[in-house]
Amino acid sequence: MQSANPTLESAYSAVLESLNRASGEASRPVPRLVAVSKTRTPDEVAALHSLGQRDFGENYVQEAAAKMDALAGLGIEWHLIGHLQSNKAREAAARFDWVQTVDRARLAEALGAARPADRPPLNVLIQVNVDGEASKSGCAPGDIDALADAIAGQPRLRLRGLMAIPAPSDDPAVRRAAFAAMRRLFENLKQRFAAIDSLSMGMSDDFDVAIAEGATMVRIGTALFGPRDRPRTIGPAPHTYK
Questions:
Q1: Which residues lie closer than 8 Å to 93 by C-beta, 6 or more apart?
Q2: Backbone phi and psi for residue 127, each to the nearest 5 degrees, phi listed first
Q3: What would the pLDDT profile of 190-209 be if each residue is shown by its tens digit?
Q4: Which among 16, 9, 56 has a CA at the least distance from the CA of 211?
Q5: Those residues with Cβ within 8 angstroms of residue 94's Cβ, 6 or more apart along the chain or in another chain
Q6: Which of 128, 138, 184, 205 has most Cβ atoms within 10 angstroms of its Cβ?
Q7: Given this model, what pLDDT does residue 240 score?
Q8: If one looks up domain 6-224 in CATH, what number appears?
């Protein structure tokens, strides 16, 4: 299908080529691409969807809900990739296909209780604060097992794996170490739960390193859509996705 946005089409092709190249160089499977569509318009999302992209990541429930309504029927798989407050859990559970930022048992309980019975179980990832940053959401690595058990006890949730946003660093070795630590945590979790299959890490400026360390899912926004030029108007900004 011909895109109405040749710049977006070129960027999408370049990203897919880069993912394939990085995976080949690392002898790893090509990861699932989540296009980060925070602050992007429904038209921009629809244009990328027309090129074949199916997974889109949003930071804020309210902003995402408007896009979901505008793009209903396209078959988009929606991922919540921003911090989720408990008072938004009901709407998130009803709206999203994935919540990648579960970091506490109380949130898992709220999501499980609110997931509609007529929808499949909600896919969830445990967000891990792998670097121990005080300002960042995510559970401590040592708390993964207890949180995984809490999620597994919710029949309306499906635990799929782990997610992380390592601390930014200009030193590739520092980023690689964080990604490698996440891979080890992921492998440990897989030993406990056979259905674990998703390790979400890596963004526009470091996805090649993340892939080399075993990422099965990457979250990319800037490399697809270009720099953001619209101010954020909804919710806090705990993380910046690229």
A1: 99, 110, 111, 112, 113, 114, 115, 116, 122, 156
A2: -85, 130
A3: 999 999 999 999 999 999 99
A4: 16
A5: 114, 115, 116, 119
A6: 128
A7: 41
A8: 3.20.20.10
